[in-house]
Amino acid sequence: MNYELRIKKNKNTGYTIIETMIAVSLFLVIIMTGMGALLNANLVHEKSRDMRSIMDNLSFVMEDIGRNLRTGTNYRCYSDWNQSEAQDSDLNTSRSCDSGRAIVFEEAYGFTPASPSPNADPNGTDQWAYKIETADGGDTYDISKSTDGGLIWTQLNPEEVDLSSVSGFSVLGAEPPGGNEQQPFVTIRLVGTIFYKNVETPFSLQTSVSQRVLDI
Cα torsion at 90, 94, 100, 103 (round to 10°)? Predict the structure, then answer.
């Protein structure tokens, strides 16, 4: 009799189908929640990495401008860009401005002839230049670079970056010796918004450089 009771008792131990289904369901919920959190963390990481890459690109643009201006000469700042001004008879005439959209200068190894003639003298078109101009009538701006006096331009900012109208250059003391007692000094400011995966991130970068060659 006791043997039969022990057999019946052993048969009644263990999990029922309902208990097993509940356990499996809870396990799946935990796994799905964990996977969702992991995927979300990975997505946030990718966005942060891509944003960091875009910001690094903008920082490199600022560094490129600053490095080339530092070793350049004959700064010419323009409030409004005009292609003819990059190669006219005023090639040797430095000029300051409070808020410019373009800056043209002689790079470190360039040579500015005493009487520039861009059509006849290759040195008349070897100036470097940076400009900030609108691509859509004034809502957004891009920054570009030229190494041939403004004939060919290369856009520097990524497509995800839109600069605003407050971006630009400020040049002080660019006039030649005798016309001022200041060493040429340039302030570069890039302000705008990064549009990436439906997220808008504002930014503001500013740096200042002075000409290394003495000009006072």
Answer: 80
